[in-house]
LacI family DNA-binding transcriptional regulator (Cohnella boryungensis), 337 residues
Amino acid sequence: MRKPTIKDVAKLAKVSISTVSRVMNSPGSVIENKRNAVLAAIEQLEYKPNALARGLIYKKTNTLGVVIPDIRNPYYADILRGMEDASKRLGYNLIICNTDRDKKRLFSYLNSFYERQVDGILYTSDPVYPDYYNELMRLKIPVMLVSTHSMEYELPSVKIDDEQAAYDAVAYLIASGHRKIGMIGFDLTDSIAGLTRYHGFIRALREHDLDECKSNIVYVNDWSYDTPDAAAQLMAKCPDVTAIFTASDELAMGLLCYLNERGISVPEQISVIGFDNIRLSHIMIPKLTTVAQPSYRIGSRAVEKLNTIIEQGEDTVLREYLPHEIIVRASTRSWRG
């Protein structure tokens, strides 16, 4: 059986298609007798307006596209929940796409967003390279950077101050008495979670006269999370290390497993601090001290800011930074050696 269309409703109610549209979207603007006729026709035909068709008419589909580099990463769970809750509150639906940090896949999703006429794009975590920026600008769709930013381009964003957060984590270790400190971080080509957190690590060492620790860094390439190899390299570089800062909780968890397998006690012999405060961090053994990102709020705030741009054309704060916090648990302790 053929589904009724807006034309069928207009014909039955003996009004124009535009009048039916106004009844569905702004009923107060239609005189009572015509409004009642349209509502009666909708009920009789059991008409359900097609979201895409409404989008073509009103240039708004109430849909947001989300690109995420690795949906398996637990860090994104709370961000997505924040996006979902804010979208529901503001009347949007989400289309979530996993890019695997593959350029062709990303561009394919962006073109799909264009074809679906999404109202805005939530671009999560990855840097914005020049060709990515050009593609985003070609689409002429509002973009919000989530847990990432661009200092090169005037793109709105919401995240924490990663450099300051890393600085605070290392400063906490130093204040706890540690003087042999190492780091497992992401490759410095990662300008979001790699370079910024490295700079925070180095700044904390420099300001506390611990320049001898600056070489105690091992990098994980391509987000492979090959933590055991990285941990082995770091222990070889600095066998007397007493505290290790990792650039993510997943790296910290891999490090805890490596140390446990080798009979190295945490925190009695080595303190470990992570970054993100994902849910698993408080059920590890030992429970993980970490930098807490307000992940849920990052996600919800990103949608709120994007909605403001969609509705008003701009947002008053281009690059918005939310507060982070050091959550102290059982994987760190004071060092008196």
